[in-house]
Amino acid sequence: MGAFPQTIYFTGANAPVGEEYELTGLPVEGDLPAEVRGSFFRAVPDPAFPPKFDNDHTLSGDGMISRVRFNGDGTADFAVRFVETARYRAEKAAGRALFGKYRNPFTDEAEVQGVDRTVANTTPVWHAGRLLMAKEDGRPYRVDPVTLDTIGSYDFGGALKSETMTAHVRIDAQTGELFFYGYEADGCASTKVAYCIVGPDGELKREQWFDAPYCAMMHDFTISENYALFPIYPTTAELDRLKAGGEHWHHEPELDSWLGVMPRYGDVREIRWFKGPKGCHSYHMMNAWEDEAGLLHFDACLNNTNAFAFIREPSGIHMAPQDVKGALTRWSVDPKAEGGEVTETIIGPPGDFPVIPARLQGRRYQTGFLLSMNPALQGPPLFAGPVGVSFNMLLRLDGMDTPTPQVTQALPLPPMAGYNEPVHVPANDPAHEGWLVCIVDQQAGDTFTHEAWVIDAGRIGAGPVARVKIPARLRPQVHGWWVPQAQIKEGVQA
């Protein structure tokens, strides 16, 4: 087995770990809120073998399902396991990498042509008693939430026709329905998008296909109470480029962005397209909501280009990370219009990994949380994750249902420390704003430490109310999901 490339994607905080283990009875410092007793699942890319190509990157890593379980006795357990995808099993049997470039099957070894190549490494999704590990280039894998054993590729009992399912689903807390989509639904560089609705019973109720304006990286989308919204940004794929052994994605600065809007229970023939700025890109949306006048507002962490250097540079875009400009941005449209252009408003600072309480998904909301960079940091940041730098400040924004939201609280970290994406945990008391749970990484020399933090969502500036030191080496996560213990028991028994 060869060595991993000595690039930012495989060194330092991003150095592969590739170990499965379980730690039990970890002590909790501080007061662990009763509501947090459950499981915090995390999706962690971690390559089992060095890649075939030296220019590979973080997002190609094999999926690992990581869990912090907060116990009733006030302790915590930690476990991590590989998601045993078809790709992982094939490479494990061979003892080496067999799959080639990121999302380019034409660069795979002949012996694995036609094998499901997703790594299921982006988001753990919990719905209807099932835990799924999702990545947008394929169908998800179902995982046992207690043992973390891989059950297998999941297609909703054969009902799902799309070859892909997004890693960013949206769940309406009031109806219990799960909304998702799959882009490149019938193969590489396709413009086909499958829009799907799953009932609270876990059954796929509806799947409709439509054509996007072009084949775009559609990493996230949103719903409102009455609409589904599909953002299209000019990070594009071309089949000829893939067949020639090129990169899946190139970013096109001169291409328009679009926002597709349709009634969320309607027919895809009702979709209307609203034109946005050229060359912009967003990976994550905070929410979408409708105001009293019927206008539809779409709040996203928008940048002036693609945030990933491994996409920009093959596209001929060479710029330092600090030159990527962004902001929390609102696009507003009249959903009853035949189309037109979005109205764009800057409503917050640059950042990513936005979080809101799950009960407000698709509804008017007042508060949101965001990871950002501390402009007053007195020292170097933590170099980690697919962008190369870890966020080091947690922000709370209030007035999200107004034209001018404000940052009202912040929790900065010291130099060489970074946040992983937090999740929101609701409180039993409706007057309490709940809790944020996240992993915080810290580097000192060549040593890395990791802690799970529980933060009062109403007082984030006060720091964690409880913390758990994890005595093992962790790799940065992508996304996470929190599940109360009672729901896990119900899911296992179902």
From TrEMBL:
EC code: 1.13.11.-
Primary enzyme class: oxidoreductase
Cofactor: Fe(2+)
Family: Belongs to the carotenoid oxygenase family.
InterPro entries hit by this protein: Carotenoid_Oase
Keywords, ordered alphabetically: Dioxygenase, Iron, Metal-binding, Oxidoreductase
Superkingdom assignment: Bacteria
Cofactor info, note text: Binds 1 Fe(2+) ion per subunit.
Name of the protein described by the UniProt record: Dioxygenase
